[in-house]
Design goal:
- There is one protein chain.
- It contains 1 helix and 9 strands.
- With 131 residues, the chain is mostly beta strands.
- It has one domain: Jelly Rolls.
- The protein has a 5-stranded antiparallel sheet with strand order 1-2-9-4-7, with helices on one face.
- The protein starts with a helix and ends with a strand.
């Protein structure tokens, strides 16, 4: 299996386990208002991979310099598909930089923040939000 596909498959397997593997809807290509269609224009791409009453699974693609705006985000599991450096800016203005590696998985507490790719490489992230 391709190295880049394995992490995505693992995230989808986790999502299916959380939802019992049934009753889900795939909504590929959906983008919320204000999101980008292609990386590199300042806003990260947002692509829904799976959504139901229990979880939302989506992919963000951050070209260098791309960001997602500050907003409240639920508890989530994040899996990084590429290496790079991301900066999270909290509602109070504090920042934290994180160097990520392919296959790395992290739990992120709910909160209001933005994320910006401050590195020189495109970073793909699969996010599973519990509803």
């Amino acid at each position: 299996m391709n190295r880049n596909i394995k992490p995505l498959a693992r995230s989808l397997a986790i999502s299916l386990a959380l939802t019992g593997g049934f009753g889900f809807a795939l909504a590929q290509g959906n983008t919320p208002a204000g999101s980008a269609d292609a990386p590199g224009n300042g806003q990260a791409v947002f692509k829904v991979l799976l959504e139901n009453e229990k979880v939302l699974v989506y992919e963000n693609i951050f070209a260098p310099g791309d960001a997602i705006p500050s907003q409240f985000r639920a508890h989530r599991v994040v899996q990084y598909l590429d290496s790079g450096t991301l900066r999270r800016t909290m509602a109070d203005g504090t920042t934290g930089d994180r160097v990520v590696q392919p296959g790395e998985v992290a739990w992120v507490e709910a909160g209001t923040f933005s994320v910006t790719n401050i590195g020189g490489t495109t970073v793909r992230v699969v996010v599973t939000e519990l509803k």
